[in-house]
Specification:
Blueprint lengths: L1 H13 L3 H6 L1 H23 L33 E6 L10 E7 L3 E7 L4 H13 L1 H8 L2 H6 L22 H4 L4 E7 L9 H10 L2 H12 L1
Antiparallel strand pairs: 1-2, 2-3, 3-4
Helix pairs in contact: 3-8
Length: 218
């Protein structure tokens, strides 16, 4: 159903209003049901390697298509993508987790911690510096570098408070979030087992997420 999904999202981007959506609601409902089935397959594959995800339901992870326009200049009522945040607690999570995004403009998978609050960010930086050899071994492993090169998100222009700009690990200390990203082509979703393939790629980031969550909980 991937071609139909991309076609729907493209048409939605061109007709982002409630009248059009209401007229195409049946198609959306069918695509949403298929999306939840695919996300459940990702969760089940992850749970085979991580018992924390056992029993997790896709409906707890998938985001709604409706946009929150209260504080946005863009009043378009609908997102032009399907997405899900996969964590043991579903989409409500402030720890390291996984994210899947299929959109009219881009498709990608992610892992890590996004936009941590200042106390958490400070704690993560300290844990990384104190265990730098372990963290670099995890995040610079060949499979990680191949699938998830670089870091996703905003970086400080200089060193954070309490660290020298010449610190040997300034490349990591300047990060304001610790996330990895892998972009996907539309053709990727032609494979019938794409959910299992995504799960396998996300599991490459499990050691990093485990390190981050251990540091948060310590």
């Amino acid at each position: 159903m991937s071609k139909q999904l991309f076609d729907f999202l493209t048409r939605l981007a061109e007709n982002n209003d409630r009248t059009w959506f209401a007229a195409n609601r049946a198609e959306y409902d069918a695509l949403r049901a298929d999306w939840l089935e695919k996300i459940q397959r990702i969760i089940n594959a992850i749970a085979a390697d991580d018992p924390l995800y056992r029993g997790l339901e896709a409906s707890r992870c998938a985001y709604r298509i409706y946009r929150d326009t209260r504080f946005s200049h863009d009043k378009s009522p609908y997102k032009t993508y399907f997405s899900a945040l996969i964590s043991p607690t579903g989409r409500h999570c402030d720890r390291a987790c996984y994210y899947v995004h299929i959109g009219a403009e881009e498709c990608a998978i992610y892992g890590g911690v996004w936009c941590p609050e200042p106390p958490m960010l400070k704690k993560l930086r300290r844990a990384i510096v104190d265990n730098i050899e372990e963290f670099r071994e995890i995040t610079e492993a060949p499979q990680v570098v191949e699938l998830f090169p670089g870091w996703y998100g905003r970086k400080l222009k200089t060193a954070p408070k309490g660290y020298d700009r010449d610190h040997p690990d300034i490349d990591l200390l300047r990060l304001t979030e610790f996330g990895k990203e892998h972009r996907l082509d539309r053709d990727f979703f032609d494979a019938p087992d794409w959910p299992e393939k995504i799960a396998a790629m996300l599991m490459v980031l499990k050691p990093m997420n485990d390190f981050l969550n251990y540091s948060i909980d310590e």
